[in-house]
Amino acid sequence: MCGIFGCVSKKGNVAPLIHAALKRLEYRGYDSVGEATIHEGKIQIKKDQGKIDDVHRMLNLDDLSGSIGVGHTRWATHGAPRPLGLPSWTNAHPHTDCNSEIAVVHNGIIDNFLELKAELENLGHEFRSKTDTEVIPHLIEENLKKGATVVEAVRDTVKRLDGSYAIAVLTSHVPERIICARNESPLVLGIGEEAVYCASDIPAFLPLTNKTVILENGELAVIQADRYEIRKIDDWKRVLREPEVIEWTAEMAEKQGYPHFMLKEIHEQPTCLRNTLRPQDLYLDLIATFLDRAGEVFLVAAGTSYHSCLAASYMFSDLAFLATHPVIASEFVEQQGMAVNINSTILAVSQSGETSDTLAAVDHARNHAATILGLTNVVGSTLTRVSRVYTVQQSGPEIGVAATKTFTSQLSVLAQLALRVAKLRGKVGHRQIEELEEKITQIPDIVEKTIERNDERAQRIAKKYKDSKVFFFLGRGISSATALEGRLKLMEIAYVPSIAYPAGESKHGPISLVEPGFPVVFICPRDETHKTIIGNIMEMKARGASIISVIEEGDEDIKNLSDEYFEVPGRLPEPLTPIAFVAPLQLLAYYTAVQRGCNPDMPRNLAKSVTVK
Ligand code: AGP
Questions:
Q1: Is the model more confident about 76 or about 50?
Q2: Nearest to 486 by CA among 602, 375, 583
Q3: Does the annotation mark 130 as catalytic?
């Protein structure tokens, strides 16, 4: 879950470019940072443990000469950032060979690194770090000794690697080229007027060019200042692939005056939701047809995307009378692996399209002849290439590690899918379908008003409860998915231990935790569950809990029972409520994080796209 970047420029020093690109990739990992350039035929490196700004203050990452270079921002999988007794920079990338003539940055995990390391140590190689990555420059060095060219040496090296990798190799042997390759971990090229770039993600070079070339699994590319060449690693066949122009602008990947990307992205939701109302009809209809005809449907995803799947299972049942199984991706193989077959259809949901757990579940299902459908936010991501049919949710780049706008956009697309399946099945009357379609078009405005109306309130409530030891989030029906998402946001960015479950479960155990003043958040749209949830609120109040409710405008019954409340203007049909009711919970989490002095954009121990299992 690191971010790698490489750049070959026609002129000038690339170090400031690399530094800036790593800043734009920092959401992928921020344990340590490093860069290398070639100047006067020599590789020079700056790296250390810590966030980019801190390391830059110490080392000045802009101050390296050379018009070719690579960089890395890290999320540690092997070798602690500060291993016992070893200098802190040791495990930071780039890693080099014995003679510092080869420097490698890597994103992924090399499963067979221990045996490769032992083999290389027997050949006299000396290792400086505890990382898996360091075997790569030593293997390249070994292949060069056998007479291979640099490109062949990299090819033969990656052929020996088991696991996931996106690498960029810089070497003084060919000081005008960078060799990069990928297997599982994402890698894209950026084709500029004055330079060519390789990076883990498009935002890295977006201010420089929006012309991109996606590298597929098992491909290697050689980039120079004015050209690039791609080959298949296995059969070394040349691959001709023209650049694609990405509609994203550099501004879309910047904060635009907001203190954090997360707050900017919360406020971008109305625009993103309007984008989802211009769907790719052909693909949505195709996906709806597959779902309608499926023997059984599994909705598979991780984290926030799983919460979209859980909410979608209520939408498909409610609107289309279609039973679906929402499954947490990392449990799919264990839980459903043996049941999947040619009659199974998997709808995989992943904003990044690169989450390893979700791709592993998809891989397993494909090997059992299941049909794969995809919903993602990134054109060209791996999920789009393993799906029979996919659709893109058009939320634009999401930089904040905590998913916000991508969650509500997923829900809007999934609701539209459920409506299309309902139409196909003729289960719902035309008038009801028209009403729902009308409501879906009103959602962007309702979410806009919800954010405006509750922003200050969220700041005040966050301040009031910022030192709470634990939080409860409760909802019934589809709101149990909203509760789970509210909890995940508060936990992942404000580090507040939180519990969420369907409100009906309270009396089966968790209520024993409740003490006077205990903050309990209730999500209470005025749907069929409204009456019952009032009972649950009374149960909690009877034990002195402090009730924070998310209600529909004018819901006096619950307002009078609440110590604090958020209001959603307008009435929404049940299947659509999570799209609006989650917004106050996103704001509560954001302001609680800020009040507790946490950085909402870069929560500790997390990274934006989880590309390791
Ligand atoms: C959510 O805020 C987290 N960033 C995380 O749970 C995320 O939703 C999960 O890793 C899935 O990511 P994906 O949608 O890119 O597959």
A1: 50
A2: 583
A3: no
